[in-house]
Structures are given as structure tokens and as C-alpha cells.
Amino acid sequence: MIAKTPSEVVFVVDDDASMRDAISRLLNAVGLTVQTFASARAFLNRRLPDVPGCVVLDVRLPGLSGLDLQREMVERGIHIPVVFITGHGDIPMSVQAMKAGAVEFLTKPFRDQDLLDAVRSGIQLDRKEREERAELADLRDCVRQLTQREQEVMSLVVSGLLNKQIALQLGTSEKTIKIHRSQVMRKMRAHSLAHLVRISQKLGTCTH
Fold first, then answer.
1. pTM of this prediction?
2. With contact defined as beta carbons under 8 Å apart, do 53 and 46 qualify?
């Protein structure tokens, strides 16, 4: 029988076995799937399921620390929101973690509800960022279908130039520009100029 892939997973990284168990029981009780790790290396060496998730991460770990793991995740392109937990937190440490993108920084002992709220926020954030990355990848695929001239026309269209002005700038006829513009709209699946501008802004290709 093939195991069903969970719709979302919480990864708990803590060298304290009793803390791992307590957090697992809490998260399991509200229907969340949990994977636990005793070290940062164990987490990095595991092939993670490709579903929305969140990492509950102890700051002080043997070997690679929690903050080190957070940096390593960024370098490896592991885009999973992090909720830090610590029994020895200080303000500079929490500021560093939050600046690096942590969802929350909880000091032990923390309220169960605070952890649950932070984990749910992390999963929600991961789901949203996954959707945005998928949308961006789809738009980039659309751009790859454009010819070099169509990409030039798109940049000039979203910068606000009229067909006549674009034709003059590119040294071609207005009729040719209209054809290119029509192809751009079709290939980019844009239903209006405003939509095309929004697409361009998402791609970072808008001409200033």
C-alpha cells in the first residue's frame, strides 16, 4: 500500500527528545503531520516532502546551531518558514532570526497556543509563497515563448509608449508593431494593457 503524502508537514528540529515529543503530540492533536530531527544535519540530510510546511527550530543545537541552519536553508534554496524556540533567547539573537525571515521567536516555556498560531502562520506563508513561485515560473515560461523583437515590444508597451512611438523607435511600421503586440498579449495570456503591466512588474522586466 502506497503511503499517502500529507498536505502539509511541520519539521521539528530540537536535540531535546522530551521537547520533540511534546511538540509532536501538540501538533498531532490538531491534525498536523510532524517529522522530528535531533540535529540540523539530520534535517538537511533528509529528503523533504514537497508540500507546504514550517520548521520549528531550537536555536541552540549541537554542531550546526539553529541560526546556522536558517542561513544554510537560505543558501540551499530551502524555502520553508522557520519558527524559533529557545530557552536561552536574547534580543540580538531574536532580531537576527527575524531579520533573516523567521516567522516567530518563542522563548521556553511558551504557551501551546502561541506555538500553534506561529506554526499555522508559517504554513500559510509557505503556501502563499509556493503559489507565487509557481505563478512566476509560469510567467517565465510565457516570456521564453516570445521572440527577441516581441520582448522589446513588450518592454516598450508597458513603459507607456503608443504603437506609433514604438514603431518609430524600432524602425518599423505601426502595422508590424500591432502584430507583435497582439502576439505578446496572446503568449503572455494578458487580457488588457493593465494586466500586461502587472505581469511585467512581477517579472521585474518593466522598463523605467
1. 0.78
2. no
Q: Bridge-partner residues for 12, per DSSP?
A: 36, 56
Name residue, grid cell 516570456: 143
pLDDT in tens, 7-27: 899 999 999 999 999 999 999
Cα-Cα-Cα-Cα torsion 68, 70, 75, 78, nearest 10 degrees, comes to 140
pLDDT for residue 89 is more than 80: no
**Cα distance between residue 12 and residue 105, in whole Å:** 14
Q: Can you read off the three cell numbers belonging to residue 40?
A: 540540523
Cα distance between residue 113 and residue 58, in whole Å: 18
Is it true that the peptide bond before 109 is cis, omega within 30 degrees of 0? yes
Residue type, 181: R
Length of the chain: 208
How is the beta sheet containing 9-13 ordered, strand by strand? 33-37, 9-13, 53-58, 82-86, 104-107
- 3-class state of residue 49 by DSSP: coil
Strands, DSSP E only, in 87-128? Answer: 104-107
